[in-house]
Automatic annotation (TrEMBL):
GO biological process, any: apoptotic process
Species annotation: Zygosaccharomyces rouxii
GO cellular component, as recorded: cytoplasm
EC code(s) of this entry: 2.3.2.8
Source species, domain of life: Eukaryota
Domain N-end rule aminoacyl transferase C-terminal: 167-309
Domain spans labelled N-end aminoacyl transferase N-terminal: 18-113
Protein name: arginyltransferase
Length: 495
């Protein structure tokens, strides 16, 4: 039996770009704030000063299965503690693309070799004698790391449940203060951010067998690894906790959540090393991909991920394409949508994609970037979505035409945090929702979806979508936009 998704209604936040954690609203070229060039041209010619914003949508999640979270990661979601979110890549100032790679896709650079060698030197007391015997031939970082750690008597790591300890928090505090100049933290915020997860308590705890298998990942004899769920990998050097990798072990790969390290060991480049280690571990425990979070082309803190090669997600198609294929398209932090039809002007339908596993574009070289056709100033998506909104409102599902067709607003229209714009890349297009309503497919939520009404503390089944209140109907449709029909049917929603 699959676990029921337990989530809140969707939220939509838009905020000043000065609050963006990546660019802080300080990109030298304003063009780079805009997802699509024609929108930048429009606003720079009009000299109206309108700019992109910092726009995110998501839900508070109480319970998600690891399998479901794996699928959500492959639809552009990430989690921060129990908050599941994805950016609105059309209105946001930074393009945050889901990136993943494999040991086969990684391009091992000189810098990576240096990093592994420096680590080897630090943790192998007999390194100097061995140094001269460094064998020539292709550099296999997985084997280098395994050999080094197996022989070391002052370095080891340990996988364990992602639970709080004072020792972990002390390291986090030191890291945040020294590396990020962040003094606004406490034990509670650390726990919420890096220990809490929307998985069941059994999954979070795991079994002794799962942890034993995982901690034996370097053993060439071992090929069976059961663990799925969150983990802390604690790094110990000379008996001290010097780093913690916060990761999610998913059926399709390892997803990196965060990495904290002791600034006193800055010389070891532990961040770089951890990425190589996690790549190596993914392949050793038979999880194909290494999910590195978001790649941001114009953010120095985030674009190092491109050095590991790999694939970026085409969010409007839920398909991956090699990073090298779209390097030109995403220059200046631009958005891309690939299609085999150069004249495509509508957003692709997405519902069918939710149930399958993540796809890759088969012949990316022959595809066209149709982002202007769909999302540009004269793009087709806005009119189609507004027409659908109007038809939905006639059926008492309270969507509405947007007053101005613009991806920017002047900040005066106070943003209702539940109000998701009619066009958001990577959500099911409103026109697809309308089709579900017209064809009564939306009624599949009947006798399946559960609502928890916090105002009356009452839990109940959705028995008949058509006779629900307009507010509930819209909440159901918004969830379908985010998660697809099947996942919404199988959910318990806190309203
Ligand atoms: Zn930004």
């Amino acid at each position: 039996m699959t676990e029921r998704l337990i989530i809140s209604e969707p939220y939509y936040f838009s905020d000043s770009i000065s609050h963006c954690g990546y660019c802080k609203g300080q990109k030298p070229d304003k063009n780079d704030n805009f997802a699509v060039k024609s929108w930048y041209d429009k606003h720079s010619e009009a000299k109206d000063g309108l700019d992109a914003q910092n726009c995110t949508l998501g839900v508070q999640a109480e319970l998600v299965s690891v399998e479901m979270y794996d699928r959500l990661c492959n639809m552009g979601f990430r989690r921060s503690g129990k908050f599941l979110y994805k950016p609105d890549l059309l209105r946001n100032c930074c393009r945050m693309y889901t990136i993943r790679t494999t040991t086969d896709q990684v391009r091992v650079s000189k810098d990576m070799k240096t990093c592994v060698k420096r680590f080897k030197k630090a943790v192998s007391p007999e390194y100097n004698q061995e140094n001269k015997k460094d064998h020539k031939g292709p550099f296999n970082f997985t084997q280098e790391i395994i050999d080094t750690e197996s022989k070391s008597d002052n370095f080891y790591t340990k996988f364990e449940p992602a639970v709080y300890s004072d020792e972990k928090y002390r390291l986090f505090a030191k890291y945040q203060e020294s590396v990020h100049n962040d003094f606004d933290h406490n034990a509670k915020s650390f726990k919420r951010f890096l220990c809490d997860a929307p998985f069941s308590p059994e999954v979070i705890r795991g079994t002794k067998q799962e942890w034993d298998q995982l901690n034996d990942w370097k053993n060439p004899e071992r090929s069976h690894f059961e663990r799925v769920g969150p983990a802390h990998e604690c790094y110990y050097y000379n008996g001290n906790l010097i780093a913690i990798a916060v990761i999610d072990i998913l059926p399709s790969g390892i997803s990196s959540v965060y990495f904290i390290w002791d600034p006193e060991y800055g010389k070891l480049s532990l961040g770089k090393l951890s990425a190589l280690r996690e790549l190596a571990i993914s392949s050793k425990i038979n999880r194909k991909h290494y999910y590195m979070g978001y790649y941001i082309q114009d953010c120095p803190k985030m674009n190092y991920k491109g050095k590991y090669g790999g694939e970026l997600m085409d969010l409007c198609n839920y398909r991956y394409t090699p990073l090298t294929r779209v390097e030109k398209e995403i220059d200046h932090s631009k958005f891309f949508v690939l299609s085999d039809d150069p004249n495509l002007t509508n957003e692709p339908h997405l519902n069918e994609r939710f149930s399958g596993t993540a796809d890759v574009w088969q012949t990316p070289g022959s595809l066209h970037n149709v982002v202007e056709n769909i999302y540009g100033v004269n793009g087709g998506a806005f009119k189609v979505a507004d027409d659908a909104a109007e038809q939905l409102s006639r059926r008492e599902i309270p969507y509405s035409r947007e007053l101005t067709h613009d991806i920017c607003n002047d900040g005066n229209g106070k943003n209702d945090i539940y109000r998701i714009p009619n066009v958001v890349p990577g959500l099911l297009p409103l026109e697809e929702i309308l089709q579900m309503v017209l064809q009564k497919k939306i009624n599949l939520v009947n006798n399946s979806m559960v609502l928890f009404d916090t105002s009356v503390g009452h839990i109940r089944l959705v028995v008949d979508f058509d006779s629900e209140s307009p507010k509930i109907k819209k909440a159901v449709c918004d969830l379908v936009r985010l998660f697809g029909l099947q996942n919404t049917m199988d959910s318990l929603v806190i309203v």
